[in-house]
Design a protein that fits this description.
This protein is α/β, with parallel strands linked by helices. The protein folds into two domains: 2-93; 168-297, no CATH class. The chain is built from eight helices and eight strands. It has helices at 2-10, 16-37, 43-93, 97-102, 106-110, 168-178, 194-209, 251-263; strands spanning 184-190, 213-214, 220-222, 232-237, 239-240, 244-245, 274-279, 286-291. The strands form two sheets. Strands 1, 2, 3, 4, 7 and 8 form a six-stranded mixed β-sheet that branches. Strands 5-6 form a two-stranded antiparallel ribbon. Helix 7 links the parallel strand 1 (184-190) and strand 2 (213-214). The protein is rod-shaped and about 170 Å long.
Amino acid sequence: MALVIAGVAASGVILMAITHTLFAVALLVVLISVTALEYERTTSQLRAAAVALLVLIIVGSLLVWLDVWLQCKKSEQDQPVMTALASNILPHILPPSWALYKTRPLARQLGTASIVKGNGNIVGNTIEGNDNKVIGWQNCPSGICAGGDINGSPSINNYDSPQRHLSPEFIKEVSSCISRVKGKVGIHAPMGNTEAFTYAQDWYKIFKDAHWDISPNFVGAYMETGRVTVGTTVTFNGTWDGAARYDHGSAGGILVDCAFAEIKNTVPSPYDNVHFTPSENAKPDEVAVTVGAEPRSN
């Protein structure tokens, strides 16, 4: 039985672990058999069985040693074969030698992170990457700086100045009040100022609805020279000696009284400064309305 097991193992049919197990089972069967025959056989027979058992143990041990020796020899014989296989396969797997020198190491490709702190030390440096932030510093030569937090996507809203308008109540009440007298008026706005021309149309409506003589019969234009005119000036006949003195029955005087009476109830325009200016050079029945630039835009 031992010879059969050894032959099968040597041929590679079963594993060596199974071979050792079968040897142990064979020895155990022999021991059980000898013990069972002890009660039925003579002394001479027991001696013969003991000798046979000893022979089997010796032969089995030799076979196990032979098996281990064969495994070692087989490993020594297979080693050159594996080395030859490795020498034939590895050169085809590895990249060519020039690729090892052309490929940069990964650490050099990624670089190292650094934190730059302080003031005035960014000039001449190159900043690369994504999501870089500049905190707490703005330089806006000839530009508009963003107020508040400048991280993310700040927006700068540069709104135009609001358009001036006389309130509808002011236009209606003043026009009705001055319509009891016939006067003359000239209305002018600065050339090229669309906002001022639009606002002057409201003054034009007051006198148009009151049937005054408007000369010219449209909003005239004047050219700015020197200091820019700001706000609206209404010039009428009168004098000034710490207080305005004028004829309350003249066309200019009635306009002033009606306008100031209505100003107590409603604001003519929240975005304008209206000045009523007496002048000795103005005629009693004549009034001049000069619209300048919006005060807030100056």
